[in-house]
Amino acid sequence: xxxxxxxxxxxxxxxxxxxxxxxxxxxxxxxxxxxxxxxxxxxxxxxxxxxxxxxxxxxxxxxxxxxxxxxxxxxxxxxxxxxxxxxxxxxxxxxxxxxxxxxxxxxxxxxxxxxxxxxxxxxxxxxxxxxxxxxxxxxxxxxxxxxxxxxxxxxxxxxxxxxxxxxxxxxxxxxxxxxxxxxxxxxxxxxxxxxxxxxxxxxxxxxxxxxxxxxxxxxxxxxxxxxxxxxxxxxxxxxxxxxxxxxxxxxxxxxxxxxxxxxxxxxxxxxxxxxxxxxxxxxxxxxxxxxxxxxxxxxxxxxxxxxxxxxxxxxxxxxxxxxxxxxxxxxxxxxxxxxxxxxxxxxxxxxxxxxxxxxxxxxxxxxxxxxxxxxxxxxxxxxxxxxxxxxxxxxxxxxxxxxxxxxxxxxxxxxxxxxxxxxxxxxx
Amino acid sequence: xxxxxxxxxxxxxxxxxxxxxxxxxxxxxxxxxxxxxxxxxxxxxxxxxxxxxxxxxxxxxxxxxxxxxxxxxxxxxxxxxxxxxxxxxxxxxxxxxxxxxxxxxxxxxxxxxxxxxxxxxxxxxxxxxxxxxxxxxxxxxxxxxxxxxxxxxxxxxxxxxxxxxxxxxxxxxxxxxxxxxxxxxxxxxxxxxxxxxxxxxxxxxxx
Lengths: 428, 207
Ligand SMILES: Cc1cc2nc3c(=O)[nH]c(=O)nc-3n(C[C@H](O)[C@H](O)[C@H](O)COP(=O)(O)OP(=O)(O)OC[C@H]3O[C@@H](n4cnc5c(N)ncnc54)[C@H](O)[C@@H]3O)c2cc1C
Ligand code: SF4
Ligand code: SF4
Ligand code: SF4
Ligand code: SF4
Hints:
The complex is a heterodimer. Chain A is an alpha/beta fold. In chain A, the strands form seven sheets. A five-stranded parallel beta sheet of chain A has the order 3-2-1-11-22, covered by helices on one side. A five-stranded parallel beta sheet of chain A has the order 13-20-14-15-16. In chain A, helix 1 links the parallel strand 1 and strand 2. The longest helix of chain A is centred in the C-terminal third of the chain and has 23 residues. Chain A folds into three domains: 171 residues, FAD/NAD(P)-binding domain (3-Layer(bba) Sandwich); 42 residues, no CATH class; 162 residues, FAD/NAD(P)-binding domain, CATH 3.50.50. Chain B is an all-alpha fold. Helices cover 58% and strands 0% of the residues of chain B. Chain B is built from eleven helices and no strands. In chain B, helix 8 runs antiparallel to helix 9 and helix 9 packs antiparallel against helix 10. The longest helix of chain B has 20 residues. Chain B is globular. The mean pLDDT of chain B is 87. At the A-B interface, strand 18 of A face helix 3 of B. The structure holds flavin-adenine dinucleotide and iron/sulfur cluster (4 copies). One iron/sulfur cluster binds next to helix 3 and helix 4 of chain B.
């Protein structure tokens, strides 16, 4: 083993969410060479799709801005976007990684002036808004995107729109001849920070996410609050655009359920408590939230947040996992049916909108790229000697809030640094 | 019968959960219930239960032995399996309901007049006679379960259905005279007797 640990001194970080950015920055600021690859056209990950952070209710853009400044200032950190890890071979200190680079069709000359987007007519679903709105097929992923560079969607290539966009660009930034490329690099250690994805709500049949307009997911609800989101920052229900003043939250939608995800997703209780403050923020006394729960799991210091929400008379708590949802055909109101656990009362409660607090699952199966990495029953990367120098970080390793994701990223970074120090002989 | 009941009360004292675990079919699953309420909310008979399944499980843990075993609730279950497919903990709720009903019946403390219990008995006697269900006798027996006048009324109400079934060859009126026995009825009796012996031994009801 010692012989093999003698080749490369670079740390690869896979995934440019809050965890990946943190791990990359910590290592680079310790003087290590770092390559950060992100499969989306921008860094930021899921956090960039949140309206506010619990527990302090600050805007995530603020933390993002600080991280971006650190990234721009660091010479040791190289960032690749639209880059996905395809294969990892080798062992600690000597990994060979092949990375697939998708074409952006826009080069470094781009000033993000937006002239190209103005002239094209093709539209695609906006993934930043979970498909709740459309956008031009030539786009900046979102306002805070890094790099600040436009993207031309694959679907436009070969159509007149592509030529129009090229003609509109005054900076010679559009290169329609870009092709997919594969880049192979040597690295000594890998931080795996590919994050999470929301559980597919349509699989929870009794809740009718695929049948009822006014059943939405918690991640969609976050987007509704964003002034640049699909509803312009207003809580309007999808069926008729009416203000959603009476909102139901269903906890453990897909989590703690052997038919779906077996694990507790840990953040969704806090997410719904936070989102109940959104309803109050928009409608004051007129806004009513009802949280249907099995147990409220607001862990350690964030219990205070729970206590504060609990004291708000506009937030009701019903201890019950909702059995099923039906829709009132004329009003499109949703009606939640179930039995509560505090007295076994049967209820059929009407709401304007129902938010499913969906669970978190790993965004990718790490084993498709690195077959030997050990994962737990839910697919999260588990610390294990067989992993060699591949270290899970953030939500790739567990369902975590930002605070804990960042702690886990720092820990992973430290382990990667130890491997590199061994490679370079810096360790005594 | 109630001697058995007293013996069980003596044996398990305050621990009804333990008693259920040891004696009721799928009983060990009861402690896995996390009281989420999905089963109760999903049961099509929900509004008619005195104690829906979720509550029964809590009552077992709370040691409410008499309230559970003498309850009509478990007898409500129609085995639709709605609760089982939705339970986040995959409890075999249907089987536990039948297990509890069966246990209460064996202890001799199940509600005497419960229609499900009486129908189950009728069905068992019927099938045991010929080794095969005699549908006509079973339905007639069922109609007359609540007395003669009631039986005539129910029988007349069902007459058009019976005639329809007769015309399509689905019902043999000679069944009333005792036809429809299967060939090896005697052997079936022997097998069932043996199976009952084994079950009684296993459940500690040696008789
Ligand atoms: C409704 C909701 C509300 C929430 N609200 C809060 C809150 O208020 N406060 C809080 O602390 N937490 C909150 N969270 C949790 C928070 O979203 C996570 O803690 C955070 O996103 C974790 O960041 P991450 O970097 O680990 O993962 P991610 O944000 O998922 O980032 C992973 C990145 O990796 C990239 N990637 C994936 N696969 C690959 C690949 N193969 N190659 C390259 N790159 C890849 C992805 O594109 C992504 O950019 C909330 C969660 C939900 C569901
Ligand atoms: S590609 Fe050209 S036109 Fe489009 S935003 Fe960039 S600089 Fe402007
Ligand atoms: S955090 Fe809350 S809502 Fe999420 S899975 Fe755990 S208990 Fe359920
Ligand atoms: S659905 Fe399952 S876990 Fe939930 S109350 Fe019923 S038995 Fe218990
Ligand atoms: S199987 Fe029995 S308890 Fe379960 S839902 Fe159906 S009737 Fe109710």
